[in-house]
């Protein structure tokens, strides 16, 4: 019989005697953290389902933010609410000791209008409810908070110095809360910021996002009876429509990477009344923020011309403006390794049945297995869409991951994504995200050289003399941007 080493015999004696060994001797940092997140899976799911049910739109997330703040306070975090002029934004922090790194974790929790849906795999709107979590921000905020609480426990158990900060960031969907938080300097003393996002696959690829500005054009005219006295009226809706024609003609003469989208948010109340008010909501995107500014200027000229042509007046309100993402390869490769260690979501037969039925409603159904792997790592590929995380990435080294929370082929901002975000299928992805966040944060706290390398890359990519100037200028947060015109 092979002789056992004395340390192993001693360890066994301690266990038999009921004497607990120090946490560091029992488990590695990563093993402790993975177990801690598994132990909080039910808490993460509970927070997520509650926020999914609240389904609150941008800057109206009073219940959602209160829940996340409550959980963080219970865990021993200090919370400052209403930061940067936004009632639903908050910063929660926990510090141990005087040294160590400051690691930020972003938490989103806003829903999208027009996507109310039950957590079932067939189209089933919720009566009396307008919004739904089509981008899965209920999962996002819950997993980030769960990760931060698990990280605090690990710091306490292992005597790790440093600070964790959770940034409660409302209104990502067009309201740009992170821009105002960055402008207020809330990230200036942070060493690294971590975030994640729901998706139809799992990846730590550090892709680019587009810069984006948005605004509302409000036309004012003169109302009149459309049959008996149309000559006395000046239609604000005509102003909107002429502007749209002018912008459509302009699309041929902008860089091919530019994207321009708009909706008419108000066009009158009755066909027989010449409308004296109409509103159009525009987005302009490009990879280069300078081009975004320039094209928006041309769109504004189209509005002025339309007002002149229709004898109406127009006013413009800048709603939001965000930078594209600045990637960080040092942090990206670290997150990639940790995502692979955490492993993709592990769905059971019930989850698979849900996904199979939901996938039948997709335009291009794909096998569920496509969402069960981790995609290859890459840096700097151009992705779609825009996010206010972009502004954060230009003021502090930032890294993000995506985790599968809805079946492969599902589009974000769809009822299918809403259904998945309210189900165990999505919640299992949120737990994977929390694991990846805590492993990455802990690695950075343990390895100051990695933090220093990420900062050096960040400084190099920004270039010498860079000074952050937000695209929103000095405007206040658009707290009412989700309200309907005229409310």
From TrEMBL:
- Domain Peptidase M20 dimerisation, residue spans: 213-305
The UniProt annotation puts the region (Disordered) at 365-385, 464-487
Keywords (alphabetical) are:
Hydrolase, Signal
The question of whether Signal is a record keyword is answered with: yes
Pfam families linked to this entry: M20_dimer, Peptidase_M20
Q: Where is the signal peptide?
A: 1-25
Q: Which domain of life is it from?
A: Bacteria
This chain's protein is named: Amidohydrolase
- What is the organism of origin for this protein? Sphingomonas canadensis
């Amino acid at each position: 019989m092979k002789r056992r080493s004395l340390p192993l015999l001693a360890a066994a004696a301690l266990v038999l005697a009921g004497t607990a060994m120090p946490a560091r001797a029992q488990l590695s940092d990563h093993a402790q953290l993975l177990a801690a997140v598994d132990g909080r899976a039910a808490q993460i799911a509970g927070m997520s389902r509650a926020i999914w049910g609240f389904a609150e739109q941008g800057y109206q997330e009073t219940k959602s933010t209160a829940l996340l703040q409550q959980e963080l306070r219970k865990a021993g975090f200090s919370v400052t609410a209403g930061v940067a002029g936004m009632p639903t934004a908050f910063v929660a922090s926990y510090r141990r000791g005087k040294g160590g790194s400051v690691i930020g974790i972003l938490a989103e929790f806003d829903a999208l209008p027009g996507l109310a849906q039950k957590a079932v795999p067939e189209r089933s709107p919720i009566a009396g409810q307008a919004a739904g979590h089509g981008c899965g921000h209920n999962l996002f905020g819950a997993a980030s908070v769960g990760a931060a609480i698990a990280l605090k426990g690990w710091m306490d158990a292992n005597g790790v110095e440093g600070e964790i900060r959770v940034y409660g960031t409302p209104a990502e969907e067009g309201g740009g809360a992170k821009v105002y938080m960055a402008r207020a300097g809330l990230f200036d003393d942070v060493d690294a910021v971590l975030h994640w996002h729901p998706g139809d696959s799992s990846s730590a690829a550090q892709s680019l996002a587009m810069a984006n500005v948005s605004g509302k054009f409000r036309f004012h005219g003169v109302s009149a009876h459309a049959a008996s006295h149309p000559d006395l009226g000046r239609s604000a809706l005509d102003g909107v429509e002429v502007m749209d024609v002018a912008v459509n003609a302009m699309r041929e003469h902008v860089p091919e990477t530019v994207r321009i989208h708009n909706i008419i948010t108000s066009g009158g109340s009755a066909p027989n009344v010449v409308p004296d008010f109409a509103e159009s909501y525009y987005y302009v995107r490009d990879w280069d923020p300078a081009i975004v500014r320039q094209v928006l200027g041309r769109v504004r000229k189209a509005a002025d011309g339309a007002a002149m042509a229709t004898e109406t007046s127009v006013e413009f309100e800048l709603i939001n403006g965000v930078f594209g993402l600045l990637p960080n390869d040092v942090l990206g490769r670290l997150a990639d390794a940790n995502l692979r260690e955490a492993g993709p979501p592990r769905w059971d037969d019930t989850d698979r049945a849900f996904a199979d039925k939901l996938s039948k409603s997709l335009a291009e159904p794909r096998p569920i297995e496509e969402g069960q792997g981790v995609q290859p790592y890459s840096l700097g590929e151009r992705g779609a869409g825009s996010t206010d995380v972009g502004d954060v990435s230009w003021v502090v080294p930032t890294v993000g991951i995506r985790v599968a929370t809805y079946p492969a082929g599902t589009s974000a901002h769809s009822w299918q994504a809403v259904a998945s975000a309210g189900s165990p299928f999505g919640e299992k992805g949120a737990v994977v995200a929390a694991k990846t966040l805590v492993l990455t944060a802990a690695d950075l706290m343990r390895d100051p050289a990695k933090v220093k390398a990420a900062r050096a890359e960040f400084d190099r990519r920004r270039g010498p003399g860079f000074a952050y100037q937000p695209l929103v200028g000095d405007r206040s947060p658009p707290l009412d941007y989700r309200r309907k015109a005229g409310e």
